[in-house]
Design a protein that fits this description.
Elements: H1 3-18, H2 24-44, E1 51-53, H3 65-86, H4 92-116, E2 119-121, H5 127-146, H6 148-165
Antiparallel strand pairs: 1-2
Helix pairs in contact: 1-3, 2-3, 4-5, 5-6
Length: 174
């Protein structure tokens, strides 16, 4: 079975069923924001990654980390954005529950990947950090949709925080 194509199919089906595609143009900048963030991570941490996608089973015939990362960016992210922003509640407490739901969903997805061997954590990263990252990410995505500049500032602060917590050496930069 091809794990990553199965994930892609699940996200596409879910986005068709629950996504808000009528308003895709208003979500597009937030999708690009998420994709750029991932591309920056992929570029900066090429030689010091915190996690690495690993092809499993039949994925080994075609996939490498880069292929899987691009599939995630091109399928999972737009699907997530259309469902997440398209169904965001208005009330603050409902919004928090919704963000926690998405954090749990992403954490379960990563836990499954860990158990199946589809991802490997490195350099001190673990599932707890992934859950925390997802929680912050979903908050920042909601902020970006309404106030993009603030989201960029929050992202820079959070990235700096992670850089310092994990004591990333400057030597990883070219």
């Amino acid at each position: 079975m091809n794990l990553n194509l199965m994930y892609g199919a699940i996200f596409i089906f879910s986005a068709i069923k629950w996504g808000d595609w009528k308003n895709w143009k208003s979500y597009y900048p937030t999708f690009l924001f998420l994709m750029v963030g991932d591309l920056v991570y992929q570029f900066l941490f090429y030689k010091h990654s915190m996690w690495e996608y690993v092809p499993v089973r039949s994925d080994k015939s075609w996939a490498k980390h880069t292929h899987i990362a691009f599939l995630i960016m091109l399928i999972k992210y737009p699907a997530t954005i259309s469902m997440f922003l398209g169904n965001m509640p208005k009330a603050a407490w409902k919004k928090l529950v919704f963000i926690l739901f998405w954090t749990l969903l992403y954490t379960i997805n990563e836990f499954t990947d860990l158990k199946l061997g589809g991802i490997v954590h490195k350099n001190g990263w673990n599932l707890g950090w992934s859950a925390f990252f997802s929680f912050v990410m979903f908050i920042v995505l909601d902020v970006h949709y309404k106030k993009p500049l603030l989201a960029w500032i929050l992202s820079a602060i959070f990235a700096t925080f992670l850089w310092n917590v994990f004591k990333i050496p400057q030597s990883i930069l070219k």
